[in-house]
Amino acid sequence: MSQIFISGLPYTSNEQEIYDLFSECGEIINVKLPKFQDTGRLLGYGHVTFKDGSSIEKALLKDRHQLGGRYIEVKVAQGQQIKKTNEIPPDDCTTIFVKNLPYDLNAEQIGDAFRPCGKIENVRMVYNHQSGNFKGFAYIDFESHLSVKKALQMNGKKVHGRLVQVDFDTKKPKAGFKYSEQQLNEQNKYLDNKEEAYQEGKRKEQNSQNKEFCRNSETDFSIKKQITNMSHSFIVLRFYLSSNLSLILAAPQLTIWSVGFLWMCIYLLITFSIFFSRINGLSDSILSPYASRNSLGDLIDQVSQVEMDLDIVLHR
Description:
Number of strands: 12
Mean pLDDT: 75
Largest sheet: 4 strands, antiparallel
Shape: rod-shaped
Order of helices and strands: EHEEHEEEEHEEHEEEHH
Strand order of the largest sheet: 2-3-1-6
Distance between the termini: 168 Å
Strand content: 15-25%
């Protein structure tokens, strides 16, 4: 192994301080200090890659060394243990995946390292989308499937001083990444519950919209009913006013005619009363001088005299 892992680093440390600390242990190929993508501060750990494996023992003596007011921890990097794969690439596979590459390499250097395996069509390096730095792994597309089999034999070999891991890539999850049956059941159950919750929420939303529509419909119907009742009331009031308006307007005329008729009746009654009273008075005054006469001739004369008196009265 030629790489160590350092933890407990101060957040203000930089690559130069690490170089200065471990340069006496041997020739350093690379120093990797991961940082937060938003602030750019160190995560507090890193890796140092030496050219010679004998430098590891000297670097381990730096364990519990004080740096920037903090005691750092130094140990052998676990990433140096290369995983072997027993899987056979498919016949149509022409791409490999390579990781743990040095961060200062370019596509031409990576291609040169794997060119003995066969003709290379393309080298795709993966970069950090914020910092633009190479992430240390890449994809290599070969022209033939046989080149992939040869490239897999470089798994665990050194490329520019670092032990690389090589695996074939089919753009599909490999067996090691498959879910277990229990995980699949849990995932399916979660998806079913999620779908059921979504449908339930959709039903509630639909019911709420239906209730709101019914409420609005009832409100509209109530308003229309009130308007209809008001219209009926207005029609009845209009009919009542129109039917009684003539009576109301004719009332003064009827009153005048009634009063006139009443006064006329009173006038006639008074007139006839006066007339008949005067007639009775005249009859008494006329008949009294002749009451003592008993002869028929006198009576006829008296009647004639009364007739004359009446003619006189009527012609006054």
